[in-house]
Amino acid sequence: MAELETIPGTGNEGRVTKKDMLQYIEARKSGAAAAAPAQTAAPTPTPAAAPSPAAPAKPASSTAPVSGNVEIIEMDRMRKLIAEHMVRSKATSPHVTSFMEADVTNLVNWRQKVKGEFEKKYGEKITFTPIFIEAIVNCIRRFPMINASLDGDRIIVKKDINIGMATALPSGNLIVPVIKHADTRNLLGLSKEVNWLAHAARQNKLKADDTQGGTFTLTNVGTFGSLMGTPIINQPQVAILAVGAIKKRPVVLETDSGDVIAIRQMMYLSLSYDHRIVDGSLGASFLTAVAQELEAFDPNRTI
Q: DSSP labels for the chain?
């Protein structure tokens, strides 16, 4: 592992590519590998590419005195990349987070009713994730500026809708596999892709292309029991949606006979967005549209 850590990566965000590995192996055979990492490690592009707030983080962690009853755990390569990516995102994009709650009772009841038949008919489990993605895609069509990136002073609006879904790995690290052309898939197609990517992530079988090209990201913090979160934008995207845990709560409902209190399945949604491109009205309007899309889910929908 120590030797692997010294191999300089030329891939996206300093990742080590197959080409890097082959070149290193050839250099090691010729006896040049021992000197090569030492010479290339110092000018590695990651610190230079990272914004200034990332610079003091490394010296602080490596030079701070450690005392008391502690355990020191060295970051693995993926955790280092995640840390640098998060710091760079916060330094690059002025983050704003809006919150909304949605009554997803119809959605929950529908899934509970059809999940057995769905798996029997298609051989796939139906989770909440593809339903959330379907709602997001429908709303992105109405608010295309959410599906964009910033290049200098140019706003790049993406015509393809590629939804990333934050997924926990067995190591505890997070990775974001991408569902390409999510707008061209029906609920069954989304379910198949979500299930396959989640399984591949847990088995560490994702390919590099499986995590590339995302235009918007969904993260389900409710999986870990959180009611809501303030997610960090996955650069170079301009927005990320977090969905919280679904909880039963008493809610006031308006009826023809007057207001009543009922037990409903409620969920919080939070949208973090890049205020350089997405202002409060657009961010809040998109988030409200997603919540309304989920609340309007047809409980009699066929599979």
A: -HHHHTSPP-SGGGPPPHHHHHHHHHHHHTT-TTHHHHHHHTT-HHHHHS-GGGTTHHHHHHHS---SS-------HHHHHHHHHHHHHHHHS-EEEEEEEEE-HHHHHHHHHHHHHHHHHHS----HHHHHHHHHHHHHHH-GGGSEEEETTEEEE-SS--EEE-EE-TTS-EE--EETTGGG--HHHHHHHHHHHHHHHHTT---GGGGS--SEEEEEGGGGT-S---PPP-TTBSEEEEE---EEEEEEEEETTEEEEEEEEEEEEEEEEETTT--HHHHHHHHHHHHHHHHT--TT---
Residue spans of the chain under pLDDT 50: 34-61
Domains and CATH numbers, the chain: 2-84 (no CATH), 96-295 (3.30.559.10)
pLDDT digits (tens, 9 = 90+) for 17-71: 888 888 888 888 877 654 444 444 444 443 433 344 444 444 444 567 788 899 8
Contact between residue 259 and residue 253 where contact means Cβ atoms under 8 Å apart? yes
Whole-angstrom CA distances from 132 to 11, 158, 240, 288 are 31, 20, 13, 14
Contact residues for 57 (Cβ-Cβ < 8 A; gap 6+): 83, 87
By annotation, the residues acting in catalysis are 275, 279
β-bridge pairing 154-157 and 174-175: unpaired
In contact, 99 and 266? CB cutoff 8 Å: no
Q: Are 104 and 263 in contact (CB under 8 A)?
A: no
The residue behind tokens 């080409």 is: 19
This prediction's pTM: 0.77
- What local confidence, expressed as pLDDT, does residue 32 receive? 61
